[in-house]
Amino acid sequence: xxxxxxxxxxxxxxxxxxxxxxxxxxxxxxxxxxxxxxxxxxxxxxxxxxxxxxxxxxxxxxxxxxxxxxxxxxxxxxxxxxxxxxxxxxxxxxxxxxxxxxxxxxxxxxxxxxxxxxxxxxxxxxxxxxxxxxxxxxxxxxxxxxxxxxxxxxxxxxxxxxxxxxxxxxxxxxxxxxxxxxxxxxxxxxxxxxxxxxxxxxxxxxxxxxxxxxxxxxxxxxxxxxxxxxxxxxxxxxxxxxxxxxxxxxxxxxxxxxxxxxxxxxxxxxxxxxxxxxxxxxxxxxxxxxxxxxxxxxxxxxxxxxxxxxxxxxxxxxxxxxxxxxxxxxxxxxxxxxxxxxxxxxxxxxxxxxxxxxxxxxxxxxxxxxxxxxxxxxxx
Length: 380
Prior knowledge:
By secondary structure, the protein is mainly beta. It is 5% helix and 47% strand. Strands 1, 2, 3, 7, 8, 22, 27, 28, 29 and 31 form a ten-stranded antiparallel sheet that branches.
């Protein structure tokens, strides 16, 4: 029998069990069908798709294939494109250029060896120890690095870059961002700017480039620039002279690999963060005769927790973000539980049998703009 794991149990009867399969992504501890395994063995038991992108792990930004397990857990994201053409590991100043406000000034753009600072930020392995440097210390007007690239028209933009040095801001050639500014710092940190920060909508052109601007009298180093379409900034996507693409994250485990009993069992999940887009996406769930899911994020107004024959079993209003969401499904006991913050819900739920466990699979061919950090998952 499966215990609820949320301080609740079906019919208020505790049923302590030892999970046959569990993945504590924060501690990187994995148990698969009754035996302890390493991370690679755990994911080899399933089918994994989604490649590209980089994620912090142990304080370092490391390029990996999916699944991407980092310091905050298992990262599940929608497909994204970095529309810039500048190289991740810059070799020269191709695909970047200098622009000086007012058309004149002594600012200079160069490619600099900055290995010590990049290493301290965990960026050296993906940049080759080099960064773009914009020197506007003698300037009296703003100076900008232009990174080549063009994004689709009429879609929200999300800009990001790792910077160190003096004051400046992120913007585009199309119009200013009212926010997106940064101030002096000794080490690299990722700065971002979103359309909601003040970037005007409307048709953009091929000249709508990402600009990293240095204020007069300032010097700025730049690494890993990114321009993507979306309502928030996703994890870093490498580019190599052309737009870079990260496909959707999708992981599926067959029932047999997990030791999952068709007659009875439980499935628990904890999300540290979830950001939902405009269309359907199954972030974690199980399949069966009626395609039931434990966490099934659908639509614009509600986050549905559990669906059966297209009907919502439990839901919580979540316009954009859910933090510390916990849910559990028990079949055989026919219950679903949900915890958001300190609020708990328990409901009867007629469950079909399940054959596979899915993490981050799209539904009905649609993809949601989702960033989800799954910190703990177990199947009893």
